[in-house]
Every structure is written in C-alpha cells, then in structure tokens.
Amino acid sequence: MKNSFWLLFWVMCTYVKAQTPVEISESQSYFPVGGEQVLFLEDKAHQISLEAFRQIPDKKLSPSPRQYVNFGVTTSAYWLKFKILNRTGKSIFLRILNPSLDTARLFVYSGKDLLVEKNVLSTQPEVYLPNAPFSLPTSADTLTCYLRVFAKVPCVVAMYVLPEKHITKVIFDQAIPDLLFFGAVLIMVLYNLFIGIATRAKVYFYYVAYSLAIGLATFFFKAYPIAILGKYHGIINDNFAVIGSMMPICLSLFTIEFLQIKERYLRGYRLLLISIGLHIFAIVVFLLGFVELNVALYQPFTIFTNLMVIIVSIRLYKTYRPARLFFYAFLSYVILSSGVVLMFLNIIPITLFIFYFLHIGGSIELTLFSIALADKINLYKKEKEVAQRKTIELIQEQNIVLEQKVQERTYQLKETNEELHQTNEELHTTIELVEQERAKSDKLLLNILPTEVATELKETGKTEVKYFESVTVLFADVKGFSALATKISPQALIAQLDETFTKMDEISLRFGLERIKTIGDCYMACGGLPNANKTHPFDVVLSALNIQQWMNEEKKRRNGNFWEVRLGLHTGDAVAGVIGKTKFAYDIWGNTVNLASRMESGGEVGKVNVTEDTFNLVKDFFEGNYREEIEAKNIGKVKAYFITRLKPEFSEDELGFEPNESFWKMYKNL
After folding, report:
1. Model's pTM, two decimal places?
2. Alpha carbon distance 655, 644 (integer Å)
3. 22-33 pLDDT, tens per residue?
C-alpha cells in the first residue's frame, strides 16, 4: 500500500499535460490558434535551428498566455509549436494577420514526415501574400506546425484556421471595415479638395494631405499594396515608414494653418516646426538604410508631435472657438490609436475589435476636422457681418444726426412767429435745401456705386460681396502723360486727362460697362457686372475699339499733340463688392483683374491686346491676329492677340468700329 502511494505521487509530479490540438470542424467560420494551444521558445541569439527546436520537450516550452500571440517589442526571434486536427475531411487554410513580420517560416509535419516548408512573411520577394490564407495539407492525422517569427516592430502573431466553405465570407467580412474606412477618407479628400480649389485656402490642402496620409498608412499597414500587386514590391513596401512619418508632418502643417498658431501662439508654432524637422530627420535616417534606428525614433517623435498638438489646442481652447472642436477631434484619435499601440506593446490583450480602432479614430477625427473647417468659415462670415453691421450703424447714426438737425431747425422756425410770412418762407427754404442735399447725396452715391449696389445699400443697409463666373476687365493706360506734363501747365494737363476719362466713361456707359476706378493715368472698367450677362466680351471689345478710334481722331485733330493709349482685356471669374467703412468704393478682385492688367502693360500703343480666352469668345465677330506668348508677372506665359476691327459682314462703317444690324441680331441671341 505504501509503495502504491509513492508510485501515484511520482506519476502526478512527472505528468505533463499533452499539447491540445486545434480541432477544425464546419461548425464555425474560423478557429483561433492561441492560448495553451501554442507553445513557444525565445531565441535571443537567433541560433536555434528547426531540428534543435523539435528535440526540445513540450514541458520546457511556454504556453501563450493569450488567445493571440504577442511578444511586444523585442529583438529576439521566437519558435512556435501548435497542432491542428482536421475533422472536416476537406481543405483547410491557415491565416497569419501581421504583414509587418520580418521573418515567418512555417514547417508542417505529419508524424516524422515534413509536408510543408514555406515562407509566410511580407519582407522577401518569394513570400506568400501577407494576411492571405494558404492551404494546409489535407490529412486525417494531427498536423504538427513549427513557426519561426521575428519582427523589428512589435512582434504579433495573430493566427486562425478557416474551413474551405467559410474562407470567402470571413475574408470579405473582415475587409468591409477597411473598405468603409477608405471610402470615408476618399469622400473627405474629394469634398475638401473641391472647396480648397474653389477658395484657394491652404488649410484645405493641408487637411487633404493629412487625410491621404492616414488613408495610405492604413492601406500599407493592412498590406493592400502587396495584395493588389500580387507580389512583394520593395520600392513600395519598404517605404511604409516614410508614409507613416508623413502623418505627423501633415498634422503639424494642418494645425499651424487651421489654428493660426504663428499669430496666436508663437512658442507652439516653433515647437511644431521642431516636430516637422524631427520627422524629416527620421525619414532621412530610413532612406539612408538605418531601418532599426528609424523604428526606434518614430514612436517618440510621434508622441512628441501629438503632445505638441494637444498643448497648442488646449492653450487656444478658451480664446479661439475653432480650437475646441479641433481638440476633441484629435483627442478621440489619440485615445483610440493609443489602444492599438498598447495592444502591440503587449500591455492589453489583442482583439480583432481593437484592430479597427485606427479606422474608428481616423474616421471620427477627419469628420470632426471637416466640421471644424465649416465652423471656421461660419465664424469668419459672422465676423464679417458684424463689421458690415457696424458700418451700417455708423451710417444710420449720421442720418439720425442729420434728421435731428433738421428737426431742431424746424422747431426754431416754428417758435419764431414774429413774422408769419417770413417764417414760412424760411421753413420752405430750409426744406428745399434739405431735399437738395439729399438729392446730391443720392446722386453722389450713384456716382460712386453701381445703381443696383447703391439701391441695395439704401434699402437693406448692407451689401453682399458677389462672385461672378465670367466678366471681362478692361485696362487703359495713357502713354505720353509724363512727356505732355513738361509741355503744358498742370491745370491744362488735368483738364485734358479729365476730358479723356470723361469720354471713356461715355463710351463705357454706351456699351453697358461699369467704370471701376481710375488710378493716376490708368482707367479700369468691367463688363458683366453688377448684373451678369453673356454679352460682356463683345461689349468690352466694342468699347476698347471705340476708345481707340476716338483717341486716334483727337490726336489727328490736334496735330499730334495728344497722348496715346494701351488697352488690355481678359475674360474670367472675379469677386466684386463694396469695401470701406466710412468711404465706399466698388471694386473687383481676382486673377482676371491681374491678367487684364498684364495684357495692358504688355500691349502696344494704339492696339487692343487681349488674352486667348477673350479672343476665342469674340473671334467669330471680330478680326484679330495672334501676337505671341507674353510673360505675365507671377502668372507665366500667356497667349495674346490684337483685335483690329469688326468683321466686314458685321460692320456698319469701313473702319469696323460700328456694328450693323446683322451684328445686333446675332448679339441678341447670345
């Protein structure tokens, strides 16, 4: 009896639980490989061979403490051992979810027979596609699998086996979140790119760059380039670190522009510039071939960038409203992405749900950033409305003062009742003076502003800046102004300039143009505003030809003692409106104005110089000839044409300046 007790005690002490195989059936979609089903051995020196590992007893190996194997940040290689028992009688597939493994070599045995020897990693040209399932031998016996892995980044080995009938559904179901995320990123990119092109605001382009960086980083992290190419491609896959470093660079640029850091928080601006420099340095280190150093630098540099962005957004949280939504957007991404980092560092368990935290966090962040951009535009509009309202209030206060003076004067006249007749005459005289002054004011306002704009200002107390898709701008510059100034008195010179501009006003008014302003000896007018129309290119060209004809006649009439003019035209979009608070001025802005000015300065005296855009619109009615490409300052090469006259079939006179009935008939059908 005593001997039997010690024998039982010895068996219990020496008993080692056999490794449990992963039993595959068709009862579920996939079977995770992990926990106590996986035994592993750390190879610190990278010297343990397959044969040496196979000789090691199971009791000297360590079981995986979690469902998905995760060794965290390590410089060691690891040998893994697990068994698979196929009870389906059909093909089964093994899938390893981590394209970032540098080494992953699989050996499959049935008893002592080696059935499979395969590379399943992502960093060698001959590898099997990462994340793609590959077939295991169909055998009724238990398969023993040996897997050697190594990674410069956190070493994660998430494995599961799929029965043949479920493989397509599982892969498709797991790809749906990726497709939804990439679709959301694409929508955000296209929407804000369109707004950026329309407004030419840099903040939208930085947002687009940051969105693309997030999308591309996720795209590469999930190994989609390899899946699309069907093989490993070194130039694309080895530069994933460059794309990863572009995210904090684009984030810093977006933060600087969106929160106006340079103007509002100079120290934060300098820190973000340092952050950009650090990531550029990390990219250079990677491109020079120091991959391990790049991996070591990437995480602390990224943490530094995130901290700087959080600090500057907190600093501006109370004083600048757009910083509030910006802070919540970025904080949501940092919190969710931190979960992924903690998972890879083996601090929290791996789950398939946490794998999608980057998708969720990125989607929330980009959506809130887009909303913040829209809110910033609304804030700008409100500030502008406040400024306009203050201007209107100032005008109203001045009107009240004027009305008070009229009332005071009327009250004084009523109290002066000594001579009723004289009092009544004075009262009528005062009223007439007030009306005359008001009429003068209205007339002066109409001389300063277009009729529609002046009416809008009087009726509503404000004006709206308007965008015009197509207008034609005319610039006329007097040549000979300085030379003539030395020959005649200043009074005569100004009188002659006034005569010239007055005639230009008459011609512009005749053809429906709006005189914008005069700048010294330069005259500017525009067709197609404040009321948009389709005839403005023809109106402006006719005005230019008639101005040129009048200048030629005046010079001939004065025996050559008259100046000449250069005329430049261009057709394009523009923004027009009233500027100023106490002195109103109607003006237009945009590249169309700049290019018309370049056409004038690059033209020739006595000729109408137009861009190709304008010429193409009127060439069926007017004669012209191609000049050459003109170097326009800050714009580049621009094709230019000289328009000389109306075509004979549309001209009333021999010179080709007056349209005939055929012209006006076609003109009305434009």
Report:
1. 0.46
2. 9
3. 888 888 877 888
